[in-house]
Design goal:
Strand order of the largest sheet: 2-1-3
Number of strands: 3
Largest sheet: 3 strands, antiparallel
Distance between the termini: 59 Å
Radius of gyration: 29 Å
Structural class: mainly alpha
Length: about 130
Amino acid sequence: MASVLNDYIKKEQMLKQLQEELQALESNSELKKELEFKDKLQALMTEHGKAARDVCEMLDPDYRKPSTKVAKASGTDGRKQRPLKVYKNPHTGQVVETRGGNHKVIQEWKAEYGNEKVVSWVVEERA
C-alpha cells in the first residue's frame, strides 16, 4: 500500500515540475512567434485547400522521393537483404532455402555433420 502512495507522490511531483516547465515555455517569446506562424500557415493552407505534404512538395520537389540509399535497401531497417542460399543434404536429399544461418534444419545438420561439411552443401546462392 505504501508503494502505491509513494508512486502517487512521485507522479504528483513530476506533474508539478512539468506544469512549471510548460508555463516557462508559454512565456517564451520565440515559442509565441512559432505558434503564431503555425496558426497563420494552417489558416492559409485551409483557405487554399492544401495539406502539409502538399506544401512540403511545393517547397521541396524531392520531399517524397526515397533517397538512393533507402531505395537500395530492401529491409525495413535499412539493411541489405542477405542472399538466399539453397542447401541440399546429400544423405537425405532434403533441400532447404534460407537467408540466414539460424534455420532450424541447418542448425540440426551442423550439429550432426559439422559446420564446414554443411556449408559445402550450398548448391545455389541468389541475391
